[in-house]
């Protein structure tokens, strides 16, 4: 027998899928509460669209070729197509658009300990509003989702891409050099950062400022005074003010206790332009959600429109809360029957289904797992019976219906 | 203090790192270089040290099975891990080198065969130089490869050069220096910051002094 199992993908079984559904419901509930409209974009997009701003590495995408020879990709990211859709359909940049989605993301995720080809992601995107209240709302949505799922030890790290960009602004550094510095800061690689900065033509105080950024993280009270001292120009100050404003708003939501800062977050997806954040919970060694502001992305689709959003990894969530749901009582009734009673059994099943009871009907000659049924009935030559672990007792059709309705007990 | 889990690369790095930790005030009563034990507890500072094979250190740390780890830069370069690389410890220093026979300098205008434990590093390095290579991944005793004609040259870490010398090889090029790094899990650094900071500070002060 040939094994057709593909590395990096999963079958989702019944009980597991129930777990996914429960998580989806909790997440959808929060999206709706905050006024986000659910939408879906196609599974296919043009490869060129993703290659445009090089925010995703080419070898992480799954490419296909359509009839005309155009290269397509399976949706490797949700934000870019939603931004495209918003720009295609809604031309007024002043209009506020709030969208939510739950969808599959197809992307090679090849870390040392994990290999995935796809995962399910939920998320929201908020267009047309660049105020700190909008930033705060997005973070509040993220925290509310984690809270709604009953997660413990929630930790949100907020960073500001514009802070580091502001620092780079007045400096005469090549793009490559900035990228290398970004990379070293992102990995908090202080040793190599020091060596690398030594090679560059920068003043000693810029040197010291850059070197402090990787460790510029922790509680708001601790980090803000340190960050204030590092401000060298207006754009850094503006970036910092934005973080302060957002934090103030989050206090209004009463969620500030979950919020920490990390100015060492750099722009890993090229489109981020301002606030960025990541969320952790339960001491899990990986971030569950991440997002940020991308005010310039929409202009590549012809509409100037600020935007912010985030995505939450639902596949990872199911692992963290090991969300296998109990499938007991998933169906209302199972009718097992002898071949001679086929007609009786089938008409009983129709009757129950008309009354909106989920009813399975299977000949006794076949085996089946009894797990998922509330009640098990048997039809043999002596009539209808109800069967429990302890006993099998005769029952009339009316009594069976009462039982299903919960109007009587066994 | 919260419990802190540190994974160390067995061998050269581990003994140097254990010395650093003990100099910082950690107490591992049952540790000695000869010990075969793999786990050591410092009850005073609530630190647990696990000795694992060096390529596994980043795996433990990335997955969060260990909060932090000490491992050579060669391992981190060969197999990229999603971890914070916080401190250059300046221990376990050596160089990544291209080596071969003294009288047979490799001809980079032709395709060359390279034996190495580090296929990724080797590929990246020669790609940048625009040199065509056949890379043979070996798991040890790389010096043998040119001697028995398996490869033209080798890429390996060289500490004193003694092993090369004894096998009749010389260093052709030093690629870049290697030293041990203190790495941390991205979430642990946030959730166990004080504990990790304590270790960094202790290790860092020792490192500064050495420089």
Give the helices and strands, then pairings.
The complex is a heterodimer of chains A (410) and B (211).
Chain A: H1 14-33, E1 37-38, E2 44-46, H2 47-51, E3 63-65, E4 71-74, H3 79-89, E5 97-110, E6 115-127, H4 132-148, E7 155-160, H5 161-169, H6 175-186, H7 190-199, H8 204-212, E8 217-218, H9 220-230, H10 234-253, E9 259-262, E10 275-280, E11 289-293, E12 307-313, H11 314-320, E13 331-337, H12 342-354, E14 359-363, E15 373-380, E16 383-387, E17 392-394, H13 397-405
Helix pairs in contact in A: 1-4, 1-11, 4-10, 5-10, 9-10
Chain B: E1 4-9, H1 12-23, E2 39-42, E3 47-52, H2 56-63, E4 68-72, H3 73-78, E5 84-88, E6 94-100, E7 112-116, H4 119-129, E8 133-137, H5 144-147, E9 153-158, H6 162-166, E10 170-178, E11 180-184, H7 188-191, H8 193-210
Parallel strand pairs in B: 1-3, 1-4, 7-8, 7-9
Antiparallel strand pairs in B: 2-3, 4-11, 5-11, 6-9, 6-10
Can you describe what's shown?
- Chain A contains 13 helices and 17 strands.
- Chain A has 410 residues and is α+β, with helices and mostly antiparallel strands.
- Chain A is elongated and about 95 Å long.
- In chain B, helix 4 links the parallel strand 7 and strand 8 (133-137).
- Chain B is elongated, with a radius of gyration of 19 Å.
Question: What does this entry show, briefly?
Answer:
Chain A has 410 residues and is of the alpha+beta class. Chain A has helices spanning 14-33, 47-51, 79-89, 132-148, 161-169, 175-186, 190-199, 204-212, 220-230, 234-253, 314-320, 342-354, 397-405; strands spanning 37-38, 44-46, 63-65, 71-74, 97-110, 115-127, 155-160, 217-218, 259-262, 275-280, 289-293, 307-313, 331-337, 359-363, 373-380, 383-387, 392-394.
């Amino acid at each position: 027998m040939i094994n057709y199992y593909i590395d990096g993908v999963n079958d989702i079984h019944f009980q597991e899928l129930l777990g996914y559904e429960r998580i989806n419901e909790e997440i959808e509930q929060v999206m709706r509460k905050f006024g986000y409209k659910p939408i879906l974009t196609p599974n296919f997009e043009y490869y060129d669209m993703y290659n445009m701003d090089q925010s995703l590495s080419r070898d992480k995408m799954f490419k296909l070729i359509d009839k005309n020879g155009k290269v397509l990709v399976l949706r490797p990211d949700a934000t870019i197509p939603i931004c495209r859709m918003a720009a295609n359909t809604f031309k007024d940049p002043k209009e506020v658009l709030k969208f939510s989605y739950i969808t599959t993301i197809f992307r090679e995720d090849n870390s040392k300990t994990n290999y995935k080809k796809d995962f399910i992601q939920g998320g929201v995107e908020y267009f047309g509003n660049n105020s700190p209240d909008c930033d705060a709302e997005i973070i509040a949505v993220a925290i509310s989702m984690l809270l709604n799922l009953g997660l413990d030890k929630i930790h949100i790290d907020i960073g500001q891409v514009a802070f580091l960009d502001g620092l780079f602004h007045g400096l005469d550094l090549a793009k490559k050099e900035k990228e290398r510095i970004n990379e070293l800061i992102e990995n908090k690689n202080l040793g190599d950062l020091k060596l690398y900065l030594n090679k560059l033509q920068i003043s000693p105080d810029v040197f010291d400022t850059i070197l402090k950024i990787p460790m510029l993280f922790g509680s708001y009270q601790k980090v803000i005074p340190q960050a204030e001292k590092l401000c060298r120009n207006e754009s850094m100050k503006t970036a910092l003010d934005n973080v302060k404003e957002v934090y103030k708003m989050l206090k209004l939501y009463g969620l500030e206790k979950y919020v920490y800062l990390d100015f060492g977050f750099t722009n890993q997806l090229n489109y981020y332009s301002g606030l960025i954040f990541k969320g952790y919970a339960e001491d899990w060694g990986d971030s569950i959600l991440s997002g940020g502001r991308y005010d310039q992305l929409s202009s590549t689709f012809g509409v100037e429109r600020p935007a912010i959003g985030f995505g939450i990894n639902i596949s990872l969530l199911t692992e963290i809360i090991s969300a296998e749901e109990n499938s007991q009582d998933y169906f209302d009734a199972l009718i097992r029957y002898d071949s001679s009673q086929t007609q009786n059994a089938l008409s009983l099943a129709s009757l129950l289904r008309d009354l909106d009871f989920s009813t399975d009907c299977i000949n006794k000659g076949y085996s089946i797992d009894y797990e998922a049924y509330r009640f098990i009935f048997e039809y043999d030559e002596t009539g209808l019976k109800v069967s429990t672990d302890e006993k099998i007792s005769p029952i009339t059709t009316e009594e069976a219906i009462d039982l299903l309705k919960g109007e009587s007990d066994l | 203090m919260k419990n802190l889990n540190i994974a160390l690369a067995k061998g050269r790095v581990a003994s140097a790192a254990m010395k650093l930790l003990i100099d910082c005030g950690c107490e591992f009563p049952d540790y000695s270089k000869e010990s075969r034990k793999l786990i050591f507890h410092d009850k005073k500072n609530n630190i647990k040290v696990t000795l694992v094979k060096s390529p596994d250190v980043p795996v433990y740390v990335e997955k969060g099975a260990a909060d932090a780890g000490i491992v050579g830069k060669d391992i981190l370069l060969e197999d990229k891990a999603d971890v914070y690389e916080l401190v250059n410890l300046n221990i376990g220093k050596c160089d990544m080198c291209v080596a071969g026979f003294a009288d047979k300098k490799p001809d980079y205008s032709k395709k060359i065969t390279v034996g190495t434990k580090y296929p990724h590093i080797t590929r990246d390095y020669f790609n940048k130089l625009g040199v065509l290579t056949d890379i043979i991944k070996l798991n040890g005793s790389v010096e043998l490869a040119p001697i028995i004609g398996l490869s033209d040259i080798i890429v390996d870490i060289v500490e004193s050069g003694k092993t090369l010398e004894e096998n009749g090889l010389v260093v052709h090029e030093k690629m870049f220096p290697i030293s041990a790094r203190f790495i941390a899990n991205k979430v642990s650094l946030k959730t166990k910051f004080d504990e990790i900071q304590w270790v960094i500070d202790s290790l860092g002060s020792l490192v500064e002094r050495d420089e």
